[in-house]
């Protein structure tokens, strides 16, 4: 089975700083720790993560391992994929999938939120079953709480003024990590360390989405109008 994960081609440069650290499926992945780096956002505003270094890392002397975590909109689920051996993820192997870990979120669920199901058709059961806190670790840019439970918290967070000409102020949150601004087509316009005051004076007039990401990877989103 390990031969399925032989890789070779280096992918393009990485542009974002969000990461996920994963360790699991010890029999196939040689008890190694893998770091996924956010490489972009798909058409559904879901984050895409690929292991670094981008040309893989050794797997039992048989080659290199390279993985991707991304959203499958057709099947409405998050997927953990292994490259098919060409470095392109054109026809990747499905290792795990999670259809229950709050699919409304823009980043994937943790190993203990919802159920990351082992795809035994590919792994032949060598991963030791579905992911959990005992047989794996998955930390970083993942979420472990349903967004539905965040609504009470979200109502305490305020952005003002709205509409805005120059500076948006954000109140009611203390554990924020970063702040992002997207346009109506889902394009990331700003991505920076959180500050309670955000200068949007350079934006053209229109509607935007402001996203606040907390240190425990919870996401709060607000629409605002730039005058």
TrEMBL record:
Keyword vocabulary terms for this entry: Signal
Pfam families: Por_Secre_tail
Top-rank lineage group of the source organism: Bacteria
InterPro entries per record: Secre_tail (IPR026444)
Residues of the Secretion system C-terminal sorting domain: 159-220
NCBIfam families noted in UniProt: Por_Secre_tail
Name of this chain's protein: T9SS type A sorting domain-containing protein
Organism: Chryseobacterium oryctis
């Amino acid at each position: 089975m390990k031969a399925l994960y032989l890789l070779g081609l280096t992918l393009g440069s990485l542009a974002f700083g969000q990461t996920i650290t994963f360790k699991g499926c010890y029999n196939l992945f040689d008890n190694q720790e893998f770091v996924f780096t956010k490489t972009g956002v798909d058409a559904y505003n879901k984050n895409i993560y690929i292991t670094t270094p981008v040309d893989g890392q050794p797997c039992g002397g048989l080659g290199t391992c390279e993985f991707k975590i991304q959203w499958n909109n057709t099947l409405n689920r998050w997927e953990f994929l292994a490259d098919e051996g060409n470095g392109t993820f054109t026809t990747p192997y499905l290792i795990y999938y999670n259809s229950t870990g709050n699919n409304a979120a823009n980043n994937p669920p943790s190993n203990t939120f919802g159920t990351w199901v082992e795809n035994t058709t590919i792994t032949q059961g060598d991963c030791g079953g579905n992911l959990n806190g005992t047989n794996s670790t998955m930390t970083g840019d993942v979420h472990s709480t349903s967004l539905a439970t965040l609504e009470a918290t979200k109502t305490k967070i305020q952005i003002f003024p709205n509409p805005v000409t120059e500076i948006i102020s954000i109140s009611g949150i203390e554990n924020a990590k970063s702040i992002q601004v997207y346009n109506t087509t889902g394009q990331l316009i700003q991505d920076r360390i959180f500050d309670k005051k955000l200068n949007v004076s350079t934006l053209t007039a229109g509607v935007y989405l402001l996203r606040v990401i907390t240190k425990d990877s919870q996401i709060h989103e607000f629409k605002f109008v730039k005058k």
